[in-house]
Amino acid sequence: MDDSDLTTDRVDHLPMVAQFLDDIGMVETIDSQVGVHPNEILSTGQTAAAMVVMALGFVSRPLYLSPQFFESKALGLIIGKSKTDKTPVILPEHLNDDKLGRTLDEIYDLGPDTLFQTVAFAAARREKLNVPSLHVDTTTHSFYGSYDDDTAAGVSGRADSTEPCHATVEYGFSKDMRHDCKQLVQELLVSSDGDVPLMVKIHSGNESDVKVFQERVKDLKKQFVDASDLMPEFIAADSKFYNETNVKACDQESPWWVTRVPDNITEAKEAFAEAYASQIWTSLQTGKGKDIVRYREVAVDRYGVPQRFIVVVSDSGLRRARSTVERQTKAEAEQLEKSARKLARMDFACAADAELAAAELFDKVKYHRLTGRQLSTENRYRGKGRPKGDSIPISTVRVTVTFEKLEPPAIEEIVWKKAMFIVGTNNTTSSAERVMSIYRKDQQGVERAFRFLKSPMYFADAFFFKNTKRIVALLTLMTIALLVYSLLQRKLRLAIAQRSQPIPDQKGKPTTKPTMNWVNQCFEGIDLIRQRGKLGVRYVFVRLGSFAKQVLSLLGPQYTRRYSVEMLL
Fold first, then answer.
1. Residue 111 CB neighbours (<10 A)
2. Are 300 and 307 in contact (CB under 8 A)?
3. Which of 203, 226, 243, 398 is most buried, most CB within 10 Å of its CB?
4. Structure pTM?
5. CA distances from 17 to 73, 501, 563 (A)
6. pLDDT digits (tens, 9 = 90+) for 179-234
7. Rounded CA gap, 234 and 106, in Å?
8. DSSP H or E segment with residue 544
9. CA distance 511 to 504
10. Are 309 and 424 contacting, i.e. CB atoms less than 8 angstroms apart?
11. How far apart, in whole angstroms, are the C-alpha atoms of residue 271 and residue 248?
């Protein structure tokens, strides 16, 4: 038998992803709405699934190189067979950029956010996802190159209000600090159970968070009308959520809201001052006892809605605030020294002007106070050089100031007020510990989701499209990939907990909470070898070690079968 009788395909963790897509019925969901054309080799659903698999391959490869990516992959295990029987074997060249582009157009025409919600809700029900709370937040995706306002990134004219998505690539406030780039805003709602995204919507690049949150609160009940089993008890958000419109919109029939309250409102300032003056706190330990969190509840009636403000401060927060204040105090002292020297060289027409300038110097000073000012009067000639014989000197006033750092108690009060923050809610029955946990955990979950979507290993980290429709559709598929990643991770962790079978972590120690990133790395190098002989084709999986077998066993028999010869026959 020569080498031509032997072929090798890379498998890695991709069949595991494909199996989960089969479990949640993503291909069937899309194809049932688009239909399958009798002349196409790959259906729209199959092509979309292939793009999700490629996204979770973490190869940092743009979509137009999809044939190159799939050239070394076992497409039979990942995609299956053609639904139209146009060819006995699906080849990498069938996943060319023309096919992918048409698929993205069809996904956009279906309505990207509606399609995602359908897939996400079906997957959440299948995995028995618990949705005690959802955290809503936004991020921005920046685009390089030429995106003319008049063409809306390749689409003639402005976005039509009758289209499934009204987003346009625009300049706006960039959370990536790339104010030189145009962008789109992505809204995401993530469940606290497993950091699973349940809703996504793409907005124009100049959309504000305040408006996004207002639309979300207004439409939330409508979007969950057929999914009451997934309706969250709480909706959490950052401080931009807190305004009169949203607070009043969340009535008793809506989810309770939990949000960071802006520090600059009157009630917040009063709550900070009262909490610091009284120093009456309830304490609890977090982070395995390493950090002590103190909180104090205040009843507030704002916008005509009864609310609870929970003033929170932690030991770690105090340490960070103290370090920040020390650094800012030093910088302020250096700046005051320079300003005071400059002021001492200035001439004023009268003493009142000099005293006013000295007072203005300390208007915005936080950590120092004016201790004294000394005025001096001098006669000076106008201009430079030797004065003319008939010149008359002018009386001018100069001022010298002295200052000192605030007393330690005053500095300590600033530290505490900088470390304190307020978590607000309209819920009056849940414990303060639960409300704080909802805000903290949900915020971490949505931030992890955004880090995932912006990972440099992601295939769409850099966008190559000039068509807004395709960008929106691609962002939707990226979020479906995040959905699969999150649910697979949750599924594995639950199985480990139920069977009490921890798996090794990066250091070889048993863990009950592995990340799918680590699991995927451990699946690297699994190959499928095809050996042709007189008795037919023989399949062999290479480097399918004990770790991979344990993970597949925990996920279920269908996942073990996906890495078996039976799947290929």
1. 16
2. yes
3. 203
4. 0.85
5. 13, 22, 12
6. 878 888 999 999 989 999 999 999 888 888 888 888 888 788 788 878 888 888 88
7. 34
8. none
9. 6
10. yes
11. 22
pLDDT over threshold 90, residue 312? yes
- Dihedrals phi, psi of 533, to nearest 5 degrees: -140, -170
Mean per-residue pLDDT, 72-89: 79
CA separation for the pair 480, 198 (Å, rounded): 10
Contacts of 51 by beta carbon, 8 Å cutoff, 6+ apart: 63, 66, 100, 103, 474, 477
**Torsion of the alpha carbons at 353, 359, 362 and 364, rounded to the nearest 10:** -90
Cβ neighbours of 32 (radius 10 Å): 12
Q: What own/partner pairs with CB < 8 Å and gap ≥ 24 does 264-267 have? A: 265/302, 267/300, 267/302, 267/309
CB 87 within 8 A of CB 41: yes
| Structure token digits, residue 70 | 């799939």
Instruction: Quote the tokens at residue 480.
Output: 């479906």
For residue 385, what are its two tokens?
């050089």
What is the sign, positive or negative, of the torsion defined by CA atoms of 231, 232, 233, 238? Answer: negative
Residues 6+ apart with CB under 8 A from 90: 41, 42, 75, 76, 79, 80, 81, 82
Q: What whole-number distance in Å separates Cα of residue 313 and Cα of residue 322?
A: 13
Residue type, 413: E
